[in-house]
């Protein structure tokens, strides 16, 4: 099974940016741990601060993976283009967020991508990614049966 973990803008700053909200661990350090939790899964990771790169990644890579765990960062609340790219895929996408965005600023309460994702996990810190991978595995296994 192959899963793409795709991160949007500013997630390259994890461990430095607002540690009270996002934690003190870098995503790269967490990604190593994530791989150790799922040794039977081929995890791949991409991060971009550019909306077009995320759209292109979803379009070009969706047919190479069984599913995507996506934290679109700030583009969650603004990007019709990312929503449309997800809609064009035939694989499940799990939307994840480190913080509980519904407990934050009101502009973060709307997600353009949630309606086209298979599920949404938020508020569990970096463990949101672990839960996202688990959810994808379950969806993929159920689809194969």
UniProtKB/TrEMBL annotation:
InterPro entries referenced in this protein's UniProt entry, alphabetically: DHquinase_II, DHquinase_II_CS, DHquinase_II_sf
EC number: 4.2.1.10
Keyword Amino-acid biosynthesis: yes
Functional pathway: Metabolic intermediate biosynthesis; chorismate biosynthesis; chorismate from D-erythrose 4-phosphate and phosphoenolpyruvate: step 3/7
Swiss-Prot/TrEMBL site (Transition state stabilizer) positions: 17
Main EC class the enzyme belongs to: lyase
GO MF annotation, one: 3-dehydroquinate dehydratase activity
Catalyzed reaction equations: 3-dehydroquinate = 3-dehydroshikimate + H2O
Active site: 22 (proton acceptor), 97 (proton donor)
Annotated keywords: Amino-acid biosynthesis, Aromatic amino acid biosynthesis, Lyase
Residues binding substrate, per UniProt: 71, 77, 84, 98-99, 108
Any GO BP annotation: aromatic amino acid family biosynthetic process
Subunit structure: Homododecamer.
Family of this protein: Belongs to the type-II 3-dehydroquinase family.
Record's function text: Catalyzes a trans-dehydration via an enolate intermediate.
HAMAP family: AroQ
UniProt name for this protein: 3-dehydroquinate dehydratase
Lineage of origin: Bacteria, Pseudomonadati, Bacteroidota, Flavobacteriia, Flavobacteriales
